[in-house]
């Protein structure tokens, strides 16, 4: 570690960063259904041995109350985007709330978090809103929110290996973003990575990311749900560690997006948060972040949470319309490929979160998601199709009166639009099936001639008048 990163130097005094305090706090896996027993975070376990339901990470909140709410906010602000390892990361700057017992030297971090909370002023004005924000989680190392959780999971794996644990590789099923994040963080930690992708159903950029980082990439003739079934079987073998969001270590990092957006709003809570939903781990992570802040006195109310699904892959929406009776579906092709999931493993956690947050679930058609993404792009954004799903939900709920135009709304943008150039190109060339492309904009091809250029400019100015 470079000497200038050592806490206790004049640059970062121990009294400011409170270096080792987190080692006093306890965490454990516990069953979400309430079965007795707890399990250490260093044990490869993903489901309750008693009932088979998912686990969640629990924290000793009484111990965390050794600091006041004001002290926690001051501490997190002092660390935010600084250079003292690893606290400049917006995940590890909240280490005591995430994974307090990990050694700093075991952490694999790429300065995740700290992404722009973009004030969507012009787009908001078009919609009749004055307080619309877009949390640009795609402005991260591998271009998606998955980095927030992957730094935690891979860091824990690294410490398990350092302490003699038998982990030969870390594996995931993915629709693109999880595989990219796992491959990068595993490469950074010197850990072999295995990724299972549905062949031909991820973007070129998403496919190339794990290839470039040296992962073993297995492209299967199935969809995400098929890949997920196989990787769960692989994780039953000793030495293969599961990196999908059914492993709740991932959600501990992802919950920091809730804490960070409140921090960026000067510790004020938004009224509504809209998030795209696929495998649904991110939904419960969002709720966990808000609930932890409430438990420790930082906020005094909870936001309403809206989950936006693609109409082609909408099992949670169907459950919402059927009194939360959940049944998997066969996901159909959608431009929002990262949420093309018909049997999400975290549905029970997501439903619990929504029931506690006055939850709404919506769906967006292929036309709605494409046009919403393109319309917002014309105001300065560059949206992935999944963010298009969330923006379409916002438009729907404003039109129906379910969201007040005066509300403070945060839309979670889960990935960079740069990963989906094929989607963008097909939209502007009018090649998306069933989409008219109301906001299409294509290059004007001209000869090398000044007068032709002037005529094109004048014609464009006339059309735009």
Q: What is the fold's blueprint, element by element?
A:
Layout: H1 14-17, E1 27-31, E2 55-59, H2 61-64, H3 69-79, H4 95-98, E3 117-119, H5 121-126, E4 132-136, H6 146-162, E5 169-173, H7 177-189, E6 193-198, H8 204-212, E7 216-220, H9 224-234, E8 240-242, H10 249-254, H11 256-264, E9 272-276, H12 281-295, E10 304-310, H13 315-321, H14 347-356, E11 360-364, H15 366-377, H16 385-400, E12 409-413, H17 421-428, H18 450-464
Parallel strand pairs: 4-12, 5-6, 5-8, 6-7, 9-10, 9-12, 10-11
Antiparallel strand pairs: 1-2, 3-4
Helix pairs in contact: 6-7, 7-8, 11-12, 12-14, 15-16
Biggest sheet, in brief? 6 strands, mixed
Strands of the widest sheet, in order across it, are 3-4-12-9-10-11
Structural class, by secondary structure, is: alpha/beta
| Count of extended strands | 12
Task: Give me the number of helical elements.
Answer: 18
| pLDDT averaged residue by residue | 93
Helix content: 25-40%
Topology pattern, helix = H, strand = E: HEEHHHEHEHEHEHEHEHHEHEHHEHHEHH
The unreliable regions are: 1-20
Give the end-to-end Cα distance, rounded to a whole number of Å: 58 Å
The backbone outline, from C-alpha atoms, is globular
Taken as a percent bin, the fraction of beta residues is: 5-15%
Radius of gyration, in angstroms, nearest whole number: 22 Å
């Amino acid at each position: 570690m470079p000497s200038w990163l050592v806490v206790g130097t004049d640059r970062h005094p121990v009294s400011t960063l409170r270096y080792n305090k987190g080692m006093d706090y306890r965490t454990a896996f516990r069953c979400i259904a309430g079965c007795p027993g707890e399990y250490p975070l260093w044990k490869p376990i993903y489901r309750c041995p008693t009932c088979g339901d998912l686990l969640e990470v629990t924290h000793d909140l009484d111990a965390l109350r050794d600091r006041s709410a004001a002290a926690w906010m001051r501490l997190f602000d002092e660390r935010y985007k600084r250079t003292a390892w690893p606290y400049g990361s917006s995940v590890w700057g909240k280490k005591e709330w995430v994974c307090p017992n990990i050694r700093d030297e075991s952490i694999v971090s790429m300065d995740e978090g700290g992404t722009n909370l973009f004030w969507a002023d012009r787009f908001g004005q078009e919609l009749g809103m004055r307080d619309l924000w877009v949390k640009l989680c795609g402005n991260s190392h591998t271009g998606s929110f998955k980095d927030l959780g992957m730094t935690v999971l891979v860091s824990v794996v690294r410490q398990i290996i350092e302490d003699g644990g038998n982990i030969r590789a870390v594996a995931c099923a993915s629709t693109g973003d999880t595989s990219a994040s796992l491959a990068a963080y595993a490469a950074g930690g010197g850990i072999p990575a295995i990724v299972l992708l549905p062949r031909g159903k991820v973007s070129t950029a998403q496919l190339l990311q794990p290839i470039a980082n040296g992962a073993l990439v297995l492209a299967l003739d199935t969809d995400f749900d098929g890949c997920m079934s196989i990787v769960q079987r692989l994780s039953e073998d000793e030495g293969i560690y599961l990196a999908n969001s059914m492993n709740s270590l991932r959600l501990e990092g992802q919950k920091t997006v809730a804490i960070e957006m409140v921090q960026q709003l000067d510790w004020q809570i938004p009224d509504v948060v809209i998030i795209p939903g696929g495998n649904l781990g991110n939904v419960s992570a969002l709720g966990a972040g808000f609930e932890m802040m409430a438990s420790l006195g930082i906020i005094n109310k909870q936001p309403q949470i809206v989950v936006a699904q693609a109409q082609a892959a909408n099992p949670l929406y169907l459950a919402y319309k059927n009194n939360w009776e959940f049944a998997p579906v066969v996901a159909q092709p959608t431009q929002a490929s990262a949420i093309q999931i018909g049997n999400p493993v975290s549905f029970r956690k997501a439903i619990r979160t929504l029931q506690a947050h006055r939850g709404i679930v919506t769906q967006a058609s292929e036309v709605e998601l494409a046009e919403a993404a393109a319309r917002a792009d014309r105001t300065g954004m560059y949206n992935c199709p999944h963010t298009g799903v969330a923006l379409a939900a916002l438009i729907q709920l404003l039109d129906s009166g379910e969201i007040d135009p005066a509300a403070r709304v945060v839309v979670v943008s889960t990935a960079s639009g740069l990963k989906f150039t094929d989607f963008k190109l097909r939209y502007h060339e009018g090649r998306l099936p069933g989409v008219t492309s109301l906001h299409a904009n294509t290059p004007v091809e001209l000869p090398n001639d000044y007068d032709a250029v002037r005529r094109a400019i004048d014609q464009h100015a006339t059309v735009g008048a």
